[in-house]
Amino acid sequence: MKKTTKFATAVILIGISTVAAVEIERSCARAEVHAAVTEFNGERAFSDLCQLVQVGPRPAGSGNSDRARAYIERQLSAADAEIWDDPFVATTPMGKIPMTNVIGVIKKESPTVVVLAGHYDTARIDGVQFVGANDGGSSAAVLLEMARVLTRRTNRFTYWLVFFDGEEALKKWTASDSLYGSRHLAEKLASDGKLGQIKAMILVDMVADRHLNILRESNSTAWLSDLVFKTARTLGYGRSFSGGTFPVEDDHMPFVAQGIPSVDIIDLTPFGSYHHTAQDSIDRCDPESLTVVGRVVLATLAELERTCQFLPAGLESLAHCLPTFFSRVDK
Predict the structure, then answer these.
(1) For residue 265, what are the contacts with CB-CB under 8 A and spacing of at least 6?
(2) Tell me, what's the pLDDT at 321?
(3) Backbone dihedral angles phi then psi of residue 36, each to the nearest 5 degrees
(4) Same domain, residue pair 10 and 152
(5) How many domains does the chain have?
(6) What pLDDT, in 10s, does the model give residues 27-79?
């Protein structure tokens, strides 16, 4: 009887110790995540948003688009990111229009690539001074602050910060009149055999609303979407990531079609009020919303890096040839 009692006590103590060890590990993990994300400065990102809005409407192919791109490249250069321009000519309902994707590259230990993306163009709307503070400005602002954070770190992945041109339709949203930059880049990478290096894509779009409510976009890759939303809850931002579930056609779709795990972090709140109107202005946006999204993205990257596997031997040699199919921009 005594032996049985001692055995039971030992089992209970082992169980308690195991639970305690798991809880300690979880607490340490949470602390590490919180420490990893605090570098993202929403106020600094908001300053970028304001600078882009001051440029004015930025539809693809316009002079203001060129000025916005110049600002983006100056900020990437200041952050010590390598800059690749990806120019192309899009066939649109308004004729041939030159467009340019901008890619800020942060090369680190592994040639495996994670893409962080958004668009910097604004919709061309007749009779409307559409400056796209949230729709166009917020995604570019988050990416610029990401560049400042990631270039100061030792990262496991190579990161591409992709600023898509031509996300907006020129006339009416259709499969052929939308997503010009992302369709072009996905096709280009596929034809050049470079898609295999991309582990994941995280897209941000309309993420600065004062009443942030990110939805679970149902065209996104399930496991990556789950990771983003779990991370948001871990950081205490669950209320800002509770916008329900809805499908959205966005710049992640060409990559989803190519089999790349992709997630669209997007807030559809503006669709019910100021989307594609002159009211999409700075006063609708909040630095805190940029902070929330930026920190969730950084924590998601930390988890991807923690669980990643490096490329098989021999594939590292692909990394050196990536710049050859983009126009290198020397700053």
Answers:
(1) 202, 203, 204, 205, 207, 214, 217, 228, 293, 296, 297
(2) 34
(3) -75, -20
(4) no
(5) 2
(6) 555 566 666 788 999 999 999 999 999 999 999 999 999 999 999 999 999 99
Q: Which domain holds residue 196?
A: 41-329
**CB–CB of 44/145 below 8 Å?**
yes
DSSP sequence for 217-242: ETTS-HHHHHHHHHHHHHTT-GGGS-
Question: How far apart are alpha carbons 101 and 30 in whole angstroms?
Answer: 36
**Structure tokens given for 272:** 């019910």
**Distance in angstroms (rounded) separating the CA atoms of residues 74 and 89:** 23
98 and 167 in a single domain? The answer is yes
CB-based contacts of 270-278 (< 8 A; 24+ apart in sequence): 270/134, 270/135, 270/206, 270/209, 275/135, 276/123, 276/125, 276/128, 276/130, 276/135, 277/128, 277/130, 278/128, 278/129, 278/130, 278/131
Q: Do residues 26 and 81 share a domain? A: no
Distance CA 253, CA 263 (A): 9
Cα separations (Å) of 91 from 23, 131, 177, 229, 302?
Answer: 56, 24, 9, 37, 39
Name residue 321's amino acid. Answer: C
70 with 135, same domain? yes
What is the pTM for the complete model shown?
A: 0.86
For residues 22 and 142, state if they share a domain.
no
Claim to verify: residue 208 and residue 75 sit in the same structural domain: yes
Could you tell me the end-to-end alpha-carbon distance of the chain, in angstroms, rounded to an integer? Answer: 80
List pLDDT tens digits, range 209-233: 999 999 999 999 999 999 999 999 9
Q: What is the 3-state secondary structure (H, E, C) of 291-323?
A: HHHHHHHHHHHHHHHHHCCCCCCCHHHHHHHHH
Collect all residues with Cβ–Cβ distance below 8 Å to 55 and sequence separation of at least 6: 64, 67, 68, 71
74 and 12 together in one domain? no
The backbone region for 290, taken as left when phi is positive above 0, alpha when psi lies in -120 to 50, beta otherwise, is alpha
Q: Which residue's structure tokens are 């995540």?
A: 33
* Residues present in the chain in total: 331
